[in-house]
Amino acid sequence: MTPLAWARTGPGNALDGKLKFNLKKYDKEYFTRLKTRVAEAQRRGFYVSVMLFEGWGPQFSPGAWEAHPFHPKNNVNGIDSDANGDGSGVEVHELVKPEVTALQEAYVRKVIDTVNGFDNVLYEISNENHPESTAWQYHMIDFIHAYEKKKKKQHPVGMTFQYKGGNNQALFDSPADWISPNPDGGYRDDPPPADGKKVILNDTDHLWGIGGNQDWVWMSFLRGMNVLFMDPYDGLVLEKRTESEWEPVRRSLGYTLEYARRLDLAATAPRGELASSGYCLANPGRQYLVYAPKGGTVGVDLAAASGEIEVEWFDPSAGKKHAAPAAQGGAKREFTAPFEGAAVLYLAAR
Q1: Does residue 341 sit within a domain?
Q2: Contacts of 191 (CB under 8 A, 6+ apart)
Q3: One domain for residues 25 and 158
Q4: What is the mean pLDDT of residues 253-272?
Q5: Same domain, 179 and 195
Q6: pLDDT category, 241, cuts 50, 70, 90?
Q7: Which domain covers residue 207, as residue numbers?
Q8: Are 122 and 140 within 8 A, CB to CB?
Q9: Do 203 and 219 belong to one domain?
Q10: What is the pTM assigned to this prediction?
């Protein structure tokens, strides 16, 4: 894989036959590409999650340690992060060798210096690292927060599910601004409402690998989460392409985005108790977005609203909106979907 962050200056060759890495010098091409791609994403309206370290690969990919720049035969700096000598090197993501941590901090500073000027950046410490990396990840989160305090911009820092054996409590206890949980607690089929203590990115990668469905998208969104889909896309890498299975997920991601733009999200929170279906985002008295997985009739508590309420049904399976007669606020009301199957109900004070 090339380019990598560190320059391959030698002297001497690494285990792959190319020049050894110098862990105190950087590959200009790597950071130029990083900056260029973040800039292009910002131009197109995308956020970029900059994954600083890869935790899954060192544990499970054959030959990962032999290819790692921190393997003693791959660098000119005398660095060996395999602290226990078992040939895996996963301790590269633990606080066991201060000289390794110092090099990682220098690399993180270089990344921050490269992309700090952009508004569309999130940081992810490491992808699915082992549970023993917890203290190291907490340290890196604190390090980024401290370093960015001196910078023009500050960006959200995230911690994602640790594999294998990690638990969501380690994420909630972390100093991270955002987290991405594992399935424990219902994040696949009945996500618990977000309470605002952490921004939650409910990501199919950490829940299934490849997975998700239309219900999951709407349930996650209506419980106050940001929804991410690891898309098989053209099928060249992740799995055989199956448009019929994943197209409803893709479409509903777009539909939830449309409603997110219509809602005053800063004033909106998960208020499942206001809807008989249990899925409701609300700014009581002003706006309500309700999901009914089985459609039919749904009750909504409009006690906080006064006057006429605009009523709109949306069929996420067909992608069609249906206007309905206005309702009156001030009490609990029942609404019946004009079509079969899952239904979305949007209510807004006039």
Answers
A1: yes
A2: 185, 202, 219, 220, 223, 225
A3: yes
A4: 97
A5: yes
A6: low
A7: 6-266
A8: no
A9: yes
A10: 0.94
